[in-house]
Amino acid sequence: MRHEIKKISRIVDELTTLFLKEDTNEVDFSIKRLEDYTVIKIRDHCTHFEDDYIDQLREVFNTQRQCEVEEYYWQLCGEVENDDELTLIGCMIDKAIVEKRDGDLYLELIRYHL
Amino acid sequence: MVVLNKIHERELHKEGKLLILSVFPVAFLLFGLFLCGSVETLVQGMKTILLSPTILITDFLEIGGLGASFVNAAIIGFINLYLLKRYKLRINGLLIAAYMTVLGFAFFGKNVFNILPIYAGGYLYCRYQKISMKNIILIIMFGTALAPIVSEIAFGHPQHLNFGLPLGIGLGVLIGFIIVPLSSHMLKFHDGYNLYNIGFTAGIIGTVFTSVLRSFKMEIQPENILYLDKSSHIASLLAFLFIYLIIVGLALNKDVLNHYGRIFKYKGRTITDFTSLVGYGMTFFNMGIMGLVSLCYVLFVGGVINGPVLAGVFTVVGFAAFGKQPKNCYPIVIGVIGTSLLLGYDLSSTSLIISVLFSTTLAPIAGSYGPLAGLVAGALHIAIVMNIGIVHGGINLYNNGFSGGLVAGFLVPIIDAFRKDD
Fold first, then answer.
1. Closest CA relative to residue B238, chosen from B283, B294, B282, B281
2. Could you give phi then psi for residue B414, rounded to 5 degrees?
3. CA B106: distance to chain centroid?
């Protein structure tokens, strides 16, 4: 895949906007590039998202990766302020762990290098 | 905020989805063969379609006959279905939109000869970038909007066929190569508020190519060849296909009728993939409804169902899987119709009918900013689309997508300037 670093940055950009705008004032990000895949870890402190919404996030982020959608639309990710591109993130990552622990929301997104 | 629905519908495998979509080219093939009557008529019609310059507007129904046009559309449908199967793509809303759009434009502008060089260009791009063709097949399907440039250069000047044929094919390959990076980049201009993004991209490419040709004193003359007979056979076929989609939707999800209102919650801005958000049953149902509404509109204003109108109807049906639903489309359509009436345009003319149908490319503006913004967008769209064709010389089949991109890129920042929220 081309523009790999930029695509990862866009995913982080989109999620930063989502969490700061819709949920909380403190978010931690950690990005680790490994040989075969990249892991993006996010901790959204003191989340106000309801369980139903967290379930929806889990489902959206665990849909099948769709490279054709990614190739066409990745530049929209993180671009718009008043709408989200979570479906697009779902198309750009391979799997996600989404869970709420001790009042914080933890996400671990995995994107394989194709 | 993401809005997913609990979807309770019958499991549908990839082959099942392809089978549902294959009914369209199969119906076109049978319909075309029935109308042709003889092999000679079919061969002559296909030859005329393949050797035509196909510049906007060249209606295949008029130049090649009804039978050959439907057979041409069927062949193009089968080629694209094969590609979807070959590359094992998940049949999502965007691919359904691309498939239906290509199918519709096979009635005016796209034929087997002029789309293949663009696919070849896409293939070369993949080889050059060392990526899978699977990644870009979608963009290339839409990218065949510029297919007329291949035919125009190849057959526009029969006395220069030896020179024109390889040049036309070469230009097609070049377009297939460059359209992938360009299409992705152009999204940023309108932020996904124009659903026909490739139309906007193709408009830019077309403008550049036409300007270069003009600087060499090569003028592309627009055409206006239209089929003008009212055929109840075509209307019946369309009605049958859209009712078929509604039945498929109901068969997959028995709660579609009760839950159809849920689809109105979606703004329609890219990416709004209804197959993921509301399931395949609701998606096919919405496609059928949008198709019937489009067909009824054409018949209500007394329009002719010809090549461009078929393209318009099938594009609406396709994008009903990827963002369009009645609630976000009606303000745009009212804006276009209202402005047209004020300006004294004839609503039954083909150019007006296709402007109304294709104007729904701006549905995300009405969905995101409300009906008033939709009305303004529709009014602007009709003003621009009636004047923009000259810029690209008619080589961009998605002329309304070009106009839609300009309207969205112009209007959205202005609307944003009036917002007071964060």
1. B294
2. -70, -45
3. 10
| Residues spanned by the domain of A66 | 4-112
Host H or E run for residue A43: strand A37-44
Which tokens hold the place of B392? 């690209």
Using CA atoms, how far apart are residues B118 and B112, in angstroms rounded to an integer?
11
Give dist(CA B113, CA B168) in Å, integer: 11
Q: Quick check: A72 contacting B, CB < 8 Å?
A: yes
Burial B41-56 (b: 16+ CB within 10 A, else e): ebeebbeebbbbbbbb
Q: Which 82-111 residues of chain A touch chain B by CB within 8 A?
A: 82-88, 90-91
CATH number at residue A50: 3.30.565.10
What residues of A are in contact with residue B90 (Cβ under 8 Å)? 64, 66
Instruction: Give the integer Cα–Cα distance in Å for A14 and A7.
Output: 11
ipTM of the complex: 0.89
Residue in chain A closest to B5 (alpha carbons) equals A56
Cβ burial, residue B91 (10 Å; 0-12/13-18/19+):
buried
List per-block mean pLDDT (blocks of 10 residues) for chain B, which spans 422 residues: 74 93 98 93 96 91 96 97 94 96 95 96 95 94 93 90 94 95 93 95 92 87 89 95 98 95 93 92 98 98 97 98 97 98 96 97 96 97 92 87 96 89 66
Supply the pTM of this predicted model: 0.94
User: How many separate domains does chain A show?
Assistant: 1
- Please choose, from the candidates B120, B122, B18, the residue with its C-alpha nearest in 3D space to the C-alpha of residue B77: B18
Inter-chain residue contact B94 with A56, CB threshold 8 Å? no
**Smallest Cα distance from A64 to chain B, Å:** 8
In angstroms, the CA B132 to CA B64 distance is 36
**Distance between CA atoms of residues B188 and B183, nearest Å:** 10
